[in-house]
Amino acid sequence: MEILIISGLSGGGKSKAASFLEDSGFYIVDNMPAAMILKFAEFCAGGGGRYARVALVYDVRTAESFSELFDVLDKLKGMEGVCRMLFLEASPAAIIKRYKETRRRHPLEKETDSLEEAVEKERELMLPVKQRADFIIDTTRLSTAKLRSELLRIFNGEGEQAGMTVSVTSFGFKHGLPLEADLVLDVRFMPNPFYIEELRHQTGLDKPVSDYVFSFQQTRDFLLKVEDLLRFTLPLYAEEGKTGLVVAVGCTGGHHRSVAIAHALTEFIREQGYQAAEHHRDMERAV
Predict the structure, then answer these.
(1) Collapsing DSSP states into helix, strand and coil, what is residue 50?
(2) Tens of pLDDT along 32-43?
(3) Cβ neighbours of residue 211 under 8 Å, at least 6 residues apart?
(4) N or C end: fewer C-beta atoms under 10 angstroms in the chain?
Protein backbone atom coordinates (compact mmCIF):
# COMPACT_ATOMS: atom_id res chain seq x y z
CA MET A 1 0.00 0.00 0.00
CA GLU A 2 1.17 3.50 -0.80
CA ILE A 3 0.13 6.45 1.38
CA LEU A 4 0.89 10.00 0.36
CA ILE A 5 0.28 12.99 2.62
CA ILE A 6 -0.34 16.13 0.55
CA SER A 7 0.36 19.24 2.56
CA GLY A 8 1.54 22.76 1.98
CA LEU A 9 0.48 26.38 1.93
CA SER A 10 -3.04 27.50 1.14
CA GLY A 11 -2.98 28.59 -2.47
CA GLY A 12 0.12 26.51 -3.11
CA GLY A 13 -1.61 24.04 -5.42
CA LYS A 14 -2.76 21.20 -3.15
CA SER A 15 -6.18 20.88 -4.78
CA LYS A 16 -4.73 20.74 -8.28
CA ALA A 17 -2.13 18.22 -7.17
CA ALA A 18 -4.83 16.05 -5.59
CA SER A 19 -6.86 16.14 -8.81
CA PHE A 20 -3.87 15.10 -10.93
CA LEU A 21 -2.97 12.30 -8.53
CA GLU A 22 -6.58 11.10 -8.53
CA ASP A 23 -6.33 10.79 -12.33
CA SER A 24 -3.19 8.71 -11.78
CA GLY A 25 -5.00 6.19 -9.58
CA PHE A 26 -4.77 7.62 -6.06
CA TYR A 27 -7.80 7.53 -3.77
CA ILE A 28 -8.07 11.09 -2.43
CA VAL A 29 -9.36 12.20 0.97
CA ASP A 30 -9.37 15.94 1.68
CA ASN A 31 -8.74 17.65 5.03
CA MET A 32 -8.35 14.57 7.22
CA PRO A 33 -7.29 15.23 10.86
CA ALA A 34 -4.09 13.52 11.93
CA ALA A 35 -5.96 11.54 14.60
CA MET A 36 -7.95 9.76 11.87
CA ILE A 37 -5.10 9.08 9.44
CA LEU A 38 -3.72 6.00 11.20
CA LYS A 39 -7.14 4.34 11.53
CA PHE A 40 -7.91 5.14 7.92
CA ALA A 41 -4.59 3.64 6.85
CA GLU A 42 -5.39 0.44 8.76
CA PHE A 43 -8.79 0.32 7.06
CA CYS A 44 -7.18 0.72 3.63
CA ALA A 45 -4.59 -1.97 4.40
CA GLY A 46 -7.44 -4.40 4.99
CA GLY A 47 -9.22 -3.45 1.79
CA GLY A 48 -7.79 -6.26 -0.28
CA GLY A 49 -5.93 -3.93 -2.63
CA ARG A 50 -8.91 -1.68 -3.30
CA TYR A 51 -7.08 1.25 -1.71
CA ALA A 52 -3.56 0.45 -2.88
CA ARG A 53 -2.68 4.13 -3.44
CA VAL A 54 -4.11 6.71 -1.05
CA ALA A 55 -3.43 10.44 -0.89
CA LEU A 56 -4.56 12.44 2.14
CA VAL A 57 -4.73 16.24 1.99
CA TYR A 58 -3.58 17.80 5.26
CA ASP A 59 -3.25 21.53 5.85
CA VAL A 60 -3.59 24.37 8.31
CA ARG A 61 -7.40 23.99 8.38
CA THR A 62 -7.07 21.05 10.77
CA ALA A 63 -6.07 23.53 13.50
CA GLU A 64 -4.24 20.94 15.59
CA SER A 65 -0.74 20.31 16.90
CA PHE A 66 1.67 19.10 14.25
CA SER A 67 3.27 16.80 16.81
CA GLU A 68 0.30 14.46 16.39
CA LEU A 69 0.83 14.44 12.63
CA PHE A 70 4.53 13.66 13.05
CA ASP A 71 3.73 10.82 15.46
CA VAL A 72 1.31 9.38 12.90
CA LEU A 73 3.92 9.72 10.15
CA ASP A 74 6.47 7.79 12.19
CA LYS A 75 3.96 4.98 12.77
CA LEU A 76 2.95 4.89 9.10
CA LYS A 77 6.56 4.64 7.99
CA GLY A 78 6.88 1.62 10.26
CA MET A 79 3.96 -0.13 8.59
CA GLU A 80 4.22 -2.34 5.56
CA GLY A 81 4.11 -0.25 2.41
CA VAL A 82 5.29 3.23 1.48
CA CYS A 83 4.44 6.49 3.25
CA ARG A 84 5.67 9.82 1.91
CA MET A 85 4.79 13.49 2.25
CA LEU A 86 4.48 16.07 -0.52
CA PHE A 87 4.65 19.76 0.38
CA LEU A 88 3.48 22.42 -2.06
CA GLU A 89 4.37 26.09 -1.68
CA ALA A 90 4.58 29.32 -3.63
CA SER A 91 5.91 32.81 -3.06
CA PRO A 92 3.77 35.17 -0.95
CA ALA A 93 3.18 37.37 -3.99
CA ALA A 94 1.96 34.40 -6.05
CA ILE A 95 -0.37 33.19 -3.30
CA ILE A 96 -1.84 36.65 -2.76
CA LYS A 97 -2.40 37.00 -6.50
CA ARG A 98 -4.19 33.63 -6.64
CA TYR A 99 -6.48 34.54 -3.75
CA LYS A 100 -7.36 37.85 -5.37
CA GLU A 101 -8.17 36.10 -8.64
CA THR A 102 -10.40 33.48 -7.00
CA ARG A 103 -11.88 35.90 -4.44
CA ARG A 104 -11.68 33.25 -1.76
CA ARG A 105 -10.73 33.94 1.85
CA HIS A 106 -7.48 32.63 3.27
CA PRO A 107 -8.07 30.19 6.20
CA LEU A 108 -6.13 32.46 8.59
CA GLU A 109 -7.47 35.78 7.35
CA LYS A 110 -9.99 36.06 10.21
CA GLU A 111 -7.13 35.82 12.69
CA THR A 112 -5.02 38.53 11.04
CA ASP A 113 -5.37 42.08 9.79
CA SER A 114 -4.63 41.42 6.12
CA LEU A 115 -4.24 38.73 3.49
CA GLU A 116 -0.50 39.37 3.39
CA GLU A 117 -0.23 38.83 7.14
CA ALA A 118 -2.29 35.63 6.88
CA VAL A 119 0.01 34.25 4.19
CA GLU A 120 3.13 35.01 6.22
CA LYS A 121 1.62 33.53 9.38
CA GLU A 122 0.75 30.29 7.62
CA ARG A 123 4.25 30.07 6.14
CA GLU A 124 5.69 30.20 9.66
CA LEU A 125 3.16 27.74 11.05
CA MET A 126 3.73 25.18 8.30
CA LEU A 127 7.54 25.32 8.40
CA PRO A 128 7.89 22.23 10.66
CA VAL A 129 5.67 20.27 8.23
CA LYS A 130 7.76 21.41 5.27
CA GLN A 131 10.90 20.23 7.04
CA ARG A 132 9.44 16.71 7.35
CA ALA A 133 8.39 16.50 3.69
CA ASP A 134 9.92 13.97 1.30
CA PHE A 135 9.15 16.16 -1.73
CA ILE A 136 8.79 19.93 -1.96
CA ILE A 137 7.37 21.60 -5.06
CA ASP A 138 7.40 25.37 -5.51
CA THR A 139 4.49 26.20 -7.84
CA THR A 140 5.26 29.92 -8.15
CA ARG A 141 6.27 29.66 -11.80
CA LEU A 142 4.76 26.29 -12.65
CA SER A 143 1.92 26.13 -15.15
CA THR A 144 -0.85 23.63 -14.52
CA ALA A 145 0.65 21.35 -17.17
CA LYS A 146 4.14 21.56 -15.66
CA LEU A 147 2.81 20.76 -12.18
CA ARG A 148 1.05 17.71 -13.55
CA SER A 149 4.20 16.64 -15.38
CA GLU A 150 6.30 16.96 -12.23
CA LEU A 151 3.82 14.91 -10.19
CA LEU A 152 3.79 12.18 -12.82
CA ARG A 153 7.58 12.13 -12.84
CA ILE A 154 7.76 11.74 -9.07
CA PHE A 155 4.89 9.40 -8.34
CA ASN A 156 4.41 7.37 -11.49
CA GLY A 157 8.04 7.06 -12.47
CA GLU A 158 7.04 6.49 -16.09
CA GLY A 159 7.17 10.02 -17.45
CA GLU A 160 4.38 12.03 -19.01
CA GLN A 161 3.26 9.10 -21.18
CA ALA A 162 1.75 7.40 -18.14
CA GLY A 163 -0.55 10.33 -17.51
CA MET A 164 -2.17 10.51 -20.94
CA THR A 165 -4.46 7.93 -22.47
CA VAL A 166 -4.85 7.88 -26.24
CA SER A 167 -8.13 6.53 -27.60
CA VAL A 168 -8.03 5.43 -31.24
CA THR A 169 -11.51 5.18 -32.75
CA SER A 170 -12.53 3.96 -36.19
CA PHE A 171 -15.76 5.29 -37.65
CA GLY A 172 -17.77 5.66 -40.84
CA PHE A 173 -18.21 9.15 -42.29
CA LYS A 174 -21.74 8.26 -43.41
CA HIS A 175 -22.65 7.86 -39.72
CA GLY A 176 -21.17 11.21 -38.68
CA LEU A 177 -17.95 12.38 -37.04
CA PRO A 178 -17.20 11.32 -33.44
CA LEU A 179 -17.93 14.44 -31.38
CA GLU A 180 -15.07 13.76 -28.97
CA ALA A 181 -12.35 13.52 -31.67
CA ASP A 182 -9.21 15.64 -31.29
CA LEU A 183 -7.54 14.43 -34.48
CA VAL A 184 -9.48 13.12 -37.50
CA LEU A 185 -7.82 11.04 -40.22
CA ASP A 186 -9.70 10.40 -43.47
CA VAL A 187 -8.68 7.13 -45.17
CA ARG A 188 -11.38 7.07 -47.85
CA PHE A 189 -8.69 7.52 -50.52
CA MET A 190 -7.54 3.93 -49.97
CA PRO A 191 -8.84 1.05 -52.15
CA ASN A 192 -12.08 -0.21 -50.59
CA PRO A 193 -12.43 -3.92 -49.64
CA PHE A 194 -16.21 -3.44 -49.70
CA TYR A 195 -16.17 -3.99 -53.45
CA ILE A 196 -14.52 -7.41 -53.12
CA GLU A 197 -17.23 -9.98 -52.47
CA GLU A 198 -15.21 -12.30 -50.22
CA LEU A 199 -14.06 -9.36 -48.04
CA ARG A 200 -17.29 -7.36 -47.84
CA HIS A 201 -18.70 -9.09 -44.77
CA GLN A 202 -15.40 -9.20 -42.90
CA THR A 203 -13.84 -6.31 -40.96
CA GLY A 204 -10.48 -4.60 -40.74
CA LEU A 205 -9.61 -6.84 -37.80
CA ASP A 206 -9.76 -9.90 -40.04
CA LYS A 207 -6.40 -10.79 -41.60
CA PRO A 208 -7.62 -11.01 -45.23
CA VAL A 209 -9.01 -7.47 -45.06
CA SER A 210 -5.97 -6.10 -43.25
CA ASP A 211 -3.62 -7.78 -45.73
CA TYR A 212 -5.60 -6.26 -48.60
CA VAL A 213 -5.56 -2.75 -47.13
CA PHE A 214 -1.81 -2.86 -46.45
CA SER A 215 -0.95 -4.45 -49.78
CA PHE A 216 -0.97 -0.98 -51.33
CA GLN A 217 2.09 1.27 -51.12
CA GLN A 218 -0.08 4.33 -50.53
CA THR A 219 -1.45 2.73 -47.36
CA ARG A 220 2.00 1.92 -46.04
CA ASP A 221 3.27 5.42 -46.87
CA PHE A 222 0.26 7.00 -45.20
CA LEU A 223 0.80 4.99 -42.02
CA LEU A 224 4.46 6.02 -41.87
CA LYS A 225 3.57 9.70 -42.21
CA VAL A 226 0.88 9.47 -39.51
CA GLU A 227 3.32 7.68 -37.22
CA ASP A 228 5.79 10.53 -37.74
CA LEU A 229 3.05 13.01 -36.88
CA LEU A 230 2.12 11.17 -33.69
CA ARG A 231 5.75 10.64 -32.71
CA PHE A 232 6.14 14.43 -32.85
CA THR A 233 2.81 15.55 -31.34
CA LEU A 234 2.09 13.02 -28.56
CA PRO A 235 4.90 14.23 -26.27
CA LEU A 236 3.76 17.82 -26.82
CA TYR A 237 0.15 16.97 -25.93
CA ALA A 238 1.37 15.18 -22.79
CA GLU A 239 3.60 18.10 -21.83
CA GLU A 240 0.71 20.52 -22.34
CA GLY A 241 -1.25 18.57 -19.73
CA LYS A 242 -3.74 16.55 -21.74
CA THR A 243 -5.03 13.50 -19.86
CA GLY A 244 -6.84 12.08 -22.88
CA LEU A 245 -6.44 12.35 -26.63
CA VAL A 246 -8.90 10.91 -29.15
CA VAL A 247 -7.62 10.00 -32.61
CA ALA A 248 -10.47 9.18 -35.00
CA VAL A 249 -9.87 7.28 -38.25
CA GLY A 250 -12.71 7.36 -40.75
CA CYS A 251 -13.64 5.56 -43.95
CA THR A 252 -17.02 5.40 -45.66
CA GLY A 253 -18.81 2.81 -43.54
CA GLY A 254 -16.41 2.19 -40.66
CA HIS A 255 -15.96 -1.54 -41.35
CA HIS A 256 -12.75 -2.10 -43.25
CA ARG A 257 -10.07 0.54 -43.97
CA SER A 258 -10.56 2.69 -40.87
CA VAL A 259 -10.62 -0.38 -38.62
CA ALA A 260 -7.37 -1.77 -40.04
CA ILE A 261 -5.58 1.59 -39.78
CA ALA A 262 -6.92 2.29 -36.26
CA HIS A 263 -5.72 -1.10 -35.08
CA ALA A 264 -2.22 -0.51 -36.51
CA LEU A 265 -2.03 2.97 -34.96
CA THR A 266 -3.05 1.65 -31.55
CA GLU A 267 -0.17 -0.83 -31.61
CA PHE A 268 2.25 1.93 -32.65
CA ILE A 269 1.09 4.27 -29.85
CA ARG A 270 1.55 1.53 -27.26
CA GLU A 271 5.06 0.92 -28.56
CA GLN A 272 5.78 4.61 -27.84
CA GLY A 273 4.98 4.01 -24.16
CA TYR A 274 1.50 5.53 -24.00
CA GLN A 275 -1.67 3.97 -22.68
CA ALA A 276 -3.84 3.33 -25.73
CA ALA A 277 -7.44 2.14 -26.04
CA GLU A 278 -8.90 0.86 -29.30
CA HIS A 279 -12.56 1.35 -30.28
CA HIS A 280 -14.50 0.63 -33.47
CA ARG A 281 -17.68 2.66 -33.32
CA ASP A 282 -19.41 1.52 -36.50
CA MET A 283 -17.80 -1.86 -37.14
CA GLU A 284 -20.82 -3.85 -35.97
CA ARG A 285 -23.33 -1.88 -38.03
CA ALA A 286 -24.90 -3.70 -40.95
CA VAL A 287 -22.87 -3.45 -44.14
Answers:
(1) coil
(2) 888 888 888 888
(3) none
(4) C
